[in-house]
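S.,

Sequence below, as promised.
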Amino acid sequence: MSNSKRCKNLTLFLAFTFALLIVDSLEACPTCKESLSENNKELIQGYFWSIMFMMAMPFSILTGISTYFYLLVRKKKKVRQLDPTTTGKLVN
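The prediction came back faster than expected:
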């Protein structure tokens, strides 16, 4: 076994060992933990919606960028169909 592979395996082993050792000490922040334990329905709904918005944001950004590039390509194809002499040239 090569030295770099041993080093990689040792690092992976240490990372997993460290994760297993600290798993009991990890908890939610005190504010969240205490407020969720009080069973405040409105606060729980607030946490739910904030998590949903945070999860939806990357997909919304990706959809917006993808739509922009799709429309850009579609516009370019339309210009080329109307004026075939522009092939190979940059047209805005």
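The mean pLDDT is 80.

Coffee later?
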